[in-house]
Amino acid sequence: MTDRQNTLSVRVVALSVACTLLLSACATTTSSTGRKQYVGAVSQQQLNQLGAQAFDQVKGEKPLTQDGKQSAYVRCVVDAIVRELPPQWQQGGWEEAVFVDKSPNAFALPGGKVGVYSGIFDVARNQDQLAAVIGHEIGHVIDNHHNERITRQMGAAGAVQLLGALAGAKYGESGSNIATQGGSLLAQGGFLLPGTREQETEADVVGQRLMAQAGFDPRQAVDLWQNMLTASAGTRPPEWLSTHPDPKSRIGELRKRADALMPTYEQSRTAGRKPKCG
């Protein structure tokens, strides 16, 4: 084995060991889909504070819509989705805002914050498609994805520092620098991003379930992402360097789940949950 191969081997092994040790010190929980999660780097109270701060920051950077109908439309969909959340996620109420921005984007933050960019209305063309967007974003919050992501990032950062120290002890300063740079790439490509793709898939599952429970047609999630795919044609990076699943695979999974969720949707409609938002 050459020195370069040996250095790479040290990097990979040390990073794996360090990440395992750092994450083993954190709490574990199970997501709503049964996936094991590492959380605990921050408390829920801290997450809520961070969410409020981030929301205020966006409001300070982007203009809010002056279109009252848009705001009422989004509020109606958010309220319908929130009514289907577990009780602990309904406490304190939810705040929503529509920002004037051409990007087809939206987000939800701990502490009950939902932001929608006005560009989303170009791809979410009815209330059911908007519910698919908002349900997905709220799914990130209620499945503790923000806590999980912060915990992973803190663990990866600590692992990279440890890796640099280990390599520096054997190969000197240049070895430490190479190991730290290489470790950062490994942590990003092999540790953080795959977890984020898992979260995106999970948020799809949770969001589509929530929209059906709230009386929105789960089949419209398929149409939404087809619209998204058309709007983003030619701009998508390779899947292995992306934080989102492959669009075509995503659409296929959404279509399968929509069929399975139709009884839930029909029961919700029979029970009187018939949102009239837009």
Descriptive labels:
278 residues, 8% strand, mainly alpha, globular, three-stranded mixed sheet
Strand order in space, largest sheet: 3-5-4
Structural class: mainly alpha
- Average pLDDT, rounded to a whole number, is 77
Structure summary, number of beta strands: 5
Uncertain regions spanning at least 5 consecutive residues: 1-25, 156-195
Strand content: 5-15%
| Number of helices, where a helix is a run of at least 4 consecutive DSSP H or I residues | 7
Radius of gyration: 21 Å
Largest sheet: 3 strands, mixed
Encode the helix/strand succession as letters.
HEEHHEEEHHHH
> What's the number of domains?
1
Residue share in helices?
55-70%
In whole angstroms, the N-to-C terminal distance is 65 Å
Structure description:
The chain has helices spanning 3-24, 44-61, 68-82, 127-142, 145-213, 220-231, 247-270; strands at 27-30, 36-39, 95-99, 106-109, 113-117. It is mainly alpha-helical and 278 residues long. It has one domain. The protein has a 3-stranded mixed beta sheet with strand order 3-5-4. Strands 1-2 form a two-stranded antiparallel ribbon. It is globular, with a radius of gyration of 21 Å. Residues 1-25 and 156-195 have low confidence and may be disordered.
Task: Write a brief caption for the model.
This protein is mainly alpha-helical. The protein has one domain.
Furnish the topology, listing elements before pairings.
Elements (H helix, E strand, L loop, with lengths): L2 H22 L2 E4 L5 E4 L4 H18 L6 H15 L12 E5 L6 E4 L3 E5 L9 H16 L2 H69 L6 H12 L15 H24 L8
Parallel strand pairs: 3-5
Antiparallel strand pairs: 1-2, 4-5
Helix pairs in contact: 1-5, 3-4, 4-5, 4-6, 5-7, 6-7
